[in-house]
Specification:
heterotrimer; A alpha/beta; B alpha+beta; C alpha+beta; B: alpha+beta; 8-stranded mixed beta sheet; 12 strands; about 30% helix; C: alpha+beta; Sulfite Reductase Hemoprotein, domain 2; 2 domains; 6-stranded mixed beta sheet; 3-stranded antiparallel beta sheet; 11 strands; about 25% helix
């Protein structure tokens, strides 16, 4: 008998904390051991199902940072600890984490793109000896959009963390960003020319964010002399299944849910929507 | 083994097949055409062989008989997920060689793509048996020969109507019924070996040059993104999930899936507003490339089976056959 | 010269500005003419007229420039035309070789209908012919028109009786993929009767006018065509007093009801017409008798069936020429 690959399982919300006006992080009781960068299909029965990346995980739990931008996420926002979410997965190809060992890892993210790589940063924060060096470049629209401020503060104890905002807004200023980070205004691409690359061969770059941000950020790194194969990106697409059936995430002959969401840039740059 | 049947004998065969199967065939749906006083050839259950339309191509493809347009996956009640009930009856479908080839394409996506077969597709697909309808003559929009999909050996039985008799080549008899009601007779199924339109199918399109081809702008200006080409297509497989609460009982609801179309607005929309392929030209390129390039790269065969239903359905008279031919001829021109 | 103008006009000939010349009016029920009849029209125009025809607003022909003395000869020539266009469809004409027996009740006009048009929801010519059979020949000045859909290309709203096709759309939710083509289109081009509920479509029957646009736009045949019905609009008119657009009398009426109404209209006119006038248009009779009496007599022996909706009042809008304009420069 074939398993019903659409049947979700129940996951209790253990904790819920607010990141920004729209972003909440949920800690869910869950025994799965995902690969860094994988996603799950999260559902609220009767409301809908959507793919959401795993932002962190540990013994008996996973975390997801969810932005309230649609029907499902609006429904999720109303939930509280002890309530349940329904999950399928994990799905997709994650980051080749071991290939980053003993390298100079640069993680560049835009907006909620920080969530899918949070677990990687935490992993290397716990095992700094596995990397030669780590830079975290993260951009947000405004100071009030900055995610994981306490984590940024924590990470900046070990790694160089640069936070940039596109513009200042009426509700926040750069003070909301921990002062242990380097705080700037401007697009994330403007940070790249100044990144120190002592050994180009050792550099591995992970870029996650909106499509345009990923394209231009990758270009900047290519300008700095990086090889395409040393850059990884993570795609976000509409998905109805996560199983390679529904067709929504297909680009060319590639299914983002199966061959992605993480792609080496040699592949990513050939994908034409 | 070949058999011949009078209409009465074939109807007895049908009557007995129907005890354990739903038997679907292209029939004339009176008044169901788009325009008033127009009929439509579409799929429905049959009880008598005289209902089967042999001399026209069905407007819709047979896929709806085993891959429903709307399919409930679960029912919700409180915390409970209850799987939808499956009809355990077999499904027998009258269809053409190209249609059978198209089911093989659907199988690639639904059964082979990814790590596991699609549960809901598989549970109906395993009950499916084919009765291939001979194609003695090609219809106007057919280009199966160019796509190499004009024949098939993948069927339980074949059928054609000739001189008042139904002739059948039976490969795998169904419960011995074909033998029981038929009179032995030498039959080999007939398939067309040429179409009115022969299409130059491109062999190895270069995505970068295809992407900048000006024909997409032309098609974009003509296409109205209605999605008819995809819903009549026998090999289009995309779907979208829908969750609902019942209006009169908001504690209960269901998760279902419905066919989706890469031509229709919303196909790539993500929560938050981002979407891809906003222009109709890009959507046309995406579909065409899927049908005659991408799918083959992944599975080794073209997705398009040349049934030509999309050409018949397009209200803007866009012809996929012509588009493929243009790309094929341009490719040859560029090489030569 | 001596002619009986009343008899001449009743015979479908005109009194014209040229004292010696008349003009023949040919009616073409539903505006659908077998072209085998064109040579006859050409022959009359060339032999007796000035070699031209005028194509009328009522989908007939007027052949001008004919001397009165040829009327009898031409009436005889018209026989095959009258046989083909009138007698053959069931119109009772006692002496088809003596020209048209009456001209008061005008040609029933119709759009091309579902023979050609994608929007039309029924065969307009067929209905026009069936109406012709009931109302012709007749003397009262009555204008009836038939159009295939609410687009009303024929301007049935300017007629005494205007008939617009309606189709009841049938919805199969299982076939619906939720593309919303029907909903968006209904909002754009029709009455916005459709909404999306739980990804499927709900139709507000009270807003739906039966235009069939949803069926035309549906890619999966989730919407198909159900029964054919008719909206009957009445007492639209042009003229020197009070031009106005017709008001809806019935909607979702069945074909038999429409035909019966056409017949009853003549009974009503006969009963209430002011015979002291040379002619009285039916609209003014209704203005005089009031809607309740009109309604009662129109619906005599009519079974409206379960679907038909009857107007509680006639809601006319139209200017009165003698009081609606205020001019800037007095």
């Amino acid at each position: 008998m074939v398993n019903n690959n659409y049947l979700p399982f129940k996951a209790k919300i253990l904790d819920k904390y607010q990141q920004t006006e729209l972003d909440w992080t949920y800690r869910l009781e869950c025994q799965i051991k995902p690969i860094f960068g994988q996603f799950m299909e999260v559902s609220l029965p009767g409301v809908g199902e959507c793919p959401i990346s795993i932002s962190d995980f540990g013994e008996g739990y996973i975390e997801m940072t969810i932005r309230t931008v649609g029907q499902v996420t609006e429904g999720i926002e109303k939930l509280n600890p002890e309530d349940y979410l329904y999950l399928r997965g994990p799905y997709g190809i994650g980051f080749p984490i071991e290939s980053f060992y003993n390298k100079h890892l640069i993680i560049a993210t835009g907006g909620t793109g920080l969530a899918p790589v949070k677990s990687i940063i935490n992993y290397f924060y716990a095992h700094p000896e596995l990397l030669k060096q780590c830079d975290i470049l993260t951009g947000f629209k405004t100071p009030s959009d900055v995610l994981f401020t306490s984590d940024l503060d924590k990470w900046s104890q070990l790694f160089r963390v640069e936070v940039t905002v596109d513009k200042l807004d009426e509700f926040g200023n750069l003070e909301v960003i921990p002062n242990s980070c380097s705080r700037k205004t401007g697009l994330i691409t403007s940070l790249i020319p100044e990144v120190q690359l002592p050994s180009l061969e050792d550099v591995r770059v992970v870029i996650v964010g909106p499509p345009i941000m990923m394209r231009y950020t990758a270009q900047e790194f290519l300008c700095r002399g990086l090889k395409q194969e040393n850059i990884w990106v993570s795609f976000e697409r509409k998905m109805s299944c996560g199983l390679g059936k529904c067709g929504h995430c297909k680009i060319d002959e590639t299914y983002v849910c199966l061959e992605g969401p993480v792609f080496n840039f040699t592949k990513a740059q050939t994908l034409l929507d | 083994m070949g058999y011949k049947y009078t209409a009465a004998a074939f109807n007895q065969l049908l009557e007995n097949l129907r005890k354990k199967h739903r038997v679907y065939a292209p029939i004339l749906l009176k008044g169901k055409g788009k325009f008033s006083d127009a009929d439509l050839v579409g799929y429905d259950e049959i009880a008598r062989v005289e209902e089967v339309v042999f001399n026209q191509k069905s407007y819709f493809s047979p896929k709806e008989t085993f891959y429903p347009i709307t399919q409930t996956l679960f029912y919700f009640a409180g915390d409970e997920f209850k799987e939808s009930v499956v009809d355990e009856k077999g499904i027998i479908v009258f269809l053409r060689a190209c249609d059978i080839q198209a089911v093989e394409r659907l199988d690639k996506i639904m059964l082979e793509n990814g790590l596991s077969p699609d549960y809901y597709y598989e549970r109906l697909r395993k009950h499916l048996k084919f009765i291939v309808m001979d194609c003695q003559e090609s219809f106007d929009s057919c280009f199966c020969v160019s796509m190499g999909t004009n024949t098939t050996k993948n069927y339980s039985a074949s059928v054609r109507y000739e001189n008042g008799l139904y002739l059948s080549d039976v490969k795998i008899d169904i419960d011995g019924l074909f033998a029981l009601y038929g009179e032995q007779f030498e039959v080999s199924p007939q398939f067309v070996e040429t179409n009115k339109q022969m299409v130059q199918v491109p062999q190895n399109l270069n995505l970068e040059s295809v992407a900048i081809n000006p024909i997409w702008e032309e098609y974009g200006a003509r296409c109205i993104a209605c999605g008819r080409c995809t819903v009549v297509c026998p090999s289009c497989s995309c779907y979208t999930m829908q969750d609902i609460f019942y209006e009169d009982n908001p504690k209960c609801g269901e998760r279902r899936r419905v066919w989706a179309s890469c031509h229709i607005d919303g196909f790539t929309d993500m929560a938050g507003g981002h979407s891809f392929r906003r222009t109709n030209g890009e959507r046309m390129r995406f579909k065409v490339m899927h049908k005659i390039n991408d799918f083959k790269q992944r599975f080794g065969v073209h997705m398009c089976v040349g049934c030509g239903r999309c050409d018949n359905a397009c209200p803007e008279y866009i012809s996929l056959a012509h588009c493929i031919d243009r790309l094929g001829k341009e490719e040859v021109g560029n090489c030569g | 010269m001596t002619i009986n103008t009343k008899r001449v006009m009743k015979n479908a000939w005109r009194i014209t500005r040229d004292r010696n010349l008349t003009c023949l009016r040919i009616r073409v029920p539903g505006g659908y003419l077998p072209v085998k009849l064109l040579p006859l029209i050409q022959e009359i125009a060339e032999r007796f007229g000035n070699g031209a025809v005028h194509i009328t607003t009522r989908q007939g022909f007027e052949i001008p420039g004919i001397a009165f003395e040829h009327m009898t000869e031409i009436n005889a020539l018209l026989t095959p035309l009258i046989e083909e266009l009138e007698v053959k469809i069931g119109v009772t004409i006692d002496q088809p070789d003596q020209g048209y027996p009456s001209a008061g009740t005008r040609n029933v006009v119709a759009c091309i209908g579902n023979k050609v048009c994608t929007n039309a929801v029924f065969d307009t010519t067929a209905l026009a012919k069936d109406i012709e059979k009931i109302i012709y020949p007749n003397n009262p000045h009555v204008k009836i028109a038939v159009t295939g859909c609410p687009n009303d290309c024929v301007k049935v709203h300017m007629h005494d009786i205007g008939i617009l096709g309606q189709v009841e759309p049938l919805y199969d939710a299982q076939r619906c993929i939720g593309c919303q083509a029907c909903i968006n289109n209904c909002h754009k081009v029709s009455t916005g009767a459709l909404t999306l509920v739980n990804y499927k479509v709900k139709r507000d029957a009270s807003r739906c006018i039966g235009c069939g646009e949803c069926v035309l736009k549906c890619p999966t045949a989730a919407w198909t065509r159900g029964g054919k019905y008719y909206r009957v609009v009445i007492m639209g008119r042009t003229g020197k007093k009070n031009p106005r657009v017709a008001a809806t009398f019935l909607e979702w009426a069945e074909r038999e009801v429409v035909l019966k109404l056409c017949a009853n209209l003549y009974v009503y006119i006969d009963k209430h017409i002011d015979r002291s006038l040379p002619k009285e248009h039916v609209g003014y009779i209704v203005d005089r008798t009031g809607y309740p009496i009109f309604k009662e007599e129109m619906l005599k022996n009519v079974d409206l069936g379960s679907k038909a909706q009857l107007a509680s009042i006639l809601n006319f809008a139209g200017p009165m020429y003698d009081n609606h304009v205020s001019f800037l420069n007095t």
